[in-house]
Write a structure and sequence with these properties.
The protein has about 180 residues and is mostly helical. It folds into 2 domains: about 10-95, Rna Polymerase Sigma Factor, Chain: A (Orthogonal Bundle); about 100-175, Winged helix-like DNA-binding domain superfamily/Winged helix DNA-binding domain (Arc Repressor Mutant, subunit A, Orthogonal Bundle), CATH 1.10.10.10. The chain is about 70% helix and about 0% strand. The chain has helices at about 10-15, 20-40, 45-60, 75-90, 100-105, 110-115, 120-125, 130-140, 145-150, 155-175. Helix 3 (about 45-60) crosses helix 4 (about 75-90).
């Protein structure tokens, strides 16, 4: 029996396709917290975050024998998470932390605006969704441009542009804080 913690994601996904529960548990251990963080940048409720992540893993287990991973497992699981977020967003628009909600906070008096301290997490939350997704996948989850392009369904040049815009907006927002 292999030591699952030393196997690569690709090796674990091959074991998973053969209904290996220990391989599934190792993948769950590797990605559960990362996916919670990723989804948590968009969803307010911790319960909903955990439910969405469990749904992702349930879907992977249910479709384990038919897994068709063309890139990396990491890219594949974030692609599922992205689709799950889109589905959730369509059904529950009010539960999302969006740009419009943050903008409403900043529409107070100038004195109130200067009192609001914007740390990095707040600055990330006010990025447009597409820029936020690219930034989080790149900087927090360590995905390559190719993997981000695969998750978002765009080209690598578009990823580079989104990351450039995200960094510019973050600098501007943090300097204003």
């Amino acid at each position: 029996m292999p030591d699952y913690f030393v196997l690569s994601d690709e090796e674990l996904s091959r074991h998973l396709q053969m209904s290996d529960v220990l391989a599934f548990k190792e993948l769950h251990t590797r990605y559960y917290k990362r996916l919670c963080f990723y989804i948590g940048t968009r969803v307010k409720s911790q319960t909903v975050i955990e439910d969405l992540v469990q749904d992702i893993f349930f879907k992977i287990w249910r479709k384990r024998k038919k897994l068709n991973i063309k890139t990396s497992f990491r890219s594949y699981i974030y692609q599922i998470a992205n689709h799950r977020l889109i589905d959730y967003y369509r059904k529950n628009k009010r539960q999302f932390v969006g740009l419009s909600e943050i903008e409403n906070i900043h529409q107070g008096t100038p004195h109130q605006s200067t009192e609001i301290q914007i740390d990095l997490s707040e600055a990330i939350k006010i990025l447009p969704e597409k820029l936020q997704t690219a930034f989080i996948l790149s900087r927090f989850d360590g995905l390559s441009y190719a993997e981000i392009a695969n998750v978002c369904g765009i080209g690598e040049k578009a990823v580079a542009k989104r990351l450039g815009k995200a960094l510019k907006l973050l600098r501007e927002n943090l300097l204003r804080a």
